[in-house]
Amino acid sequence: MRVSTIPISAWIGIAGILIALFCAIFAPWIAPFGEREVVGDIWLPMGGDFLLGTDNLGRDLLSRLIFGARTTIFVALAATFLSFSLGMLLSFTAAVTGGFLDQLFSRFNDLMMAIPTLIFALVVLAVLPQQLWILILVMAVLDSTRVFRIGRAVALDVAVMEFVEAARLRGEGTGWIIFREILPNTLSPLLAEFGLRFAFSILFLSTLSFLGLGIQPPAADWGGMVKDNKDGIIFGISAALIPGGAIATLAICVNLVVDWLMKRTSSLKGGRGDA
Fold it and tell me: Over the stretch 24-39, which tens digit does the pLDDT of each residue have?
């Protein structure tokens, strides 16, 4: 892959993701004020000492936005990694093993997908303690059903190929076939799907935080910031629109990169088919 072949839209997406990651990693050093520090009156306008103004408690919005990037990206990324690990392991096992185990995993996955994701998450999170690891686990389990579906589909396509049959004839076990034969040949579509699930996790986390069951205050996250400042919209105060714009911008940047990856994957497949 040459750098010159990367389209402008993908560069825009990559730049947006890198800025968000930079804020997340170096938040304590680049934020003008502390995450929970009250620095002025409520809902001060943009400008002066507060570039983006202040929130409903008088905290600096820019600082909260920077710290919120760290929380939002960490939770969404952790949930996505966990969901992919679980979904890919189960889907590849089902595709390679087949028979009763495949039917059991597939029907249970269908059952989970039939339950509205948001309602299921709200019920579970309302019952369980409000802890970060529980939030990540619930998000990962719900999202793994989508990963299972696409993982099984791509694994079934590869599992019938000759090199997989050759591995079976050599006496290789299920673990070898999954990690050495199927996984390397399905990375391209799965990487694209990883980006999509990551964008979905950002939006899903923001929704849960807006409803009060995501990241708990006073910790900063973008969905919670929208919730905290939503009443200001009535008075023409844009404090809630700033974190909302950050959520939308990051999701769009991720989708731009994913769109480029999917097109690149399609072109590679076409090139192999023509050869």
Answer: 999 999 999 999 899 9
What are the two backbone dihedrals, phi and then psi, of residue 159, each rounded to the nearest 5 degrees? Answer: -65, -20
Q: Which helix (H) or strand (E) holds 43?
A: none
Q: What is the pLDDT of residue 272?
A: 40
Q: What is the largest CA-CA distance in the chain?
A: 73
3 state DSSP class of 76: helix
- pLDDT of 100-126, one tens digit each? 888 999 999 999 888 888 889 998 998
Task: Decide: 223 and 214 in contact? Cβ < 8 Å.
Answer: yes
| Burial (CB count within 10 angstroms: exposed 0-12, middle 13-18, buried 19+), residue 126 | exposed
- Report pLDDT digits (tens) over 200-212: 999 999 999 998 8
Q: Which two tokens stand for residue 226?
A: 């929208």
Question: Rounded distance, CA 4 to CA 25, Å?
Answer: 29
261 vs 20: which has the higher pLDDT = 20
Hey, CA dihedral for 212, 215, 219, 220, is it positive or negative? negative
Residue type, 258: V
Rg of the chain over CA atoms, in angstroms?
Answer: 22
Smallest CA-to-CA distance from 78 within 217, 248, 255, 202 is with: 202
Looking at residue 39, the DSSP 8-state letter turns out to be: -
Asked if residues 83 and 90 have their Cβ atoms less than 8 Å apart, the reply is: no
What is the torsional sign of CA 160, 161, 166, 172?
negative
What amino acid occupies position 136? I
Exposed e or buried b per residue across 30-50, where buried means at least 16 C-beta atoms within 10 angstroms of its C-beta: ebebebeeebbebbbeeeeeb
